[in-house]
Amino acid sequence: MDISEINLSLFRLVNDLGKEYPFLNPTFIFIAEYMVFILAISVLIIWFTRDEDNRLMILCASIAFICAYTVGKVSGVFHSNYQPFVELNDVNQLIHKEEDNSFPSDHTILFFSYCFSFWLSKRGWSILWVLLAVLVGVSRIWVGVHYPLDVLTGILISLTAATSIYLIFPKLNVTQATLKIYGKYENKLLLLFKRTMRNKSKNF
């Protein structure tokens, strides 16, 4: 059995679960479509804790995502395939998606870049972030818009990028300098905002 056959078999195995257990479909649709908004909100909340370690973690995760996304787009030039619902019959397609190259999975790259970076920085309970990323990857197969190989390639690219950035970026002088400059101007903006609000309250 070659890679393409294994890829197809694994896809059928996961995607057909939606036919066997349809009561789980709404959950996987939510994970596949809307979990990205929860990740975005989480990133903003973590950033505005104003903790320096948290900000370094978000910065590393963001750079890892940019690197992984770029590598993913380049790899898509050398290998491409349409989504399963385009190429195969009897696919349990649960969400709408335009027909295009599905290799590798952008959602998987996004979640593993951030979630694995969170785990590298925090460890411990942060493994839950990685489990969330795994769920997102599985959900993209479950809803019929990606093959397992799309997802696995996205995972490998993201893990490589996240690990490389984690090992290199925090040690660079420019990293600490950037965070300090940002923090300086953020403090100025906060002071300006507080003064503005104080003046407005006095006028009333």
Task: Give me a quick take on this structure.
With 204 residues, this protein is mainly alpha-helical. It has helices spanning 3-15, 17-20, 25-47, 52-78, 84-87, 106-122, 127-142, 148-168, 173-203. It folds into 2 domains: 3-165, no CATH class; 172-204.
Descriptive labels:
undecaprenyl-diphosphatase activity; PAP2/HPO; membrane; elongated; 2 domains; 204 residues; Undecaprenyl-diphosphatase
Q: Unreliable runs, pLDDT <50, ≥5 residues?
A: none
Number of helices: 9
Class by alpha and beta content: mainly alpha
Q: Helical percent range?
A: over 70%
Order of helices and strands: HHHHHHHHH
Domain count, please report it. Answer: 2
Main beta-sheet annotation: none
- End-to-end distance: 77 Å
Content of β-strand: under 5%
Mean pLDDT: 91
Radius of gyration based on Cα positions: 21 Å
What is the tally of beta strands?
A: 0
The coarse overall form would be elongated
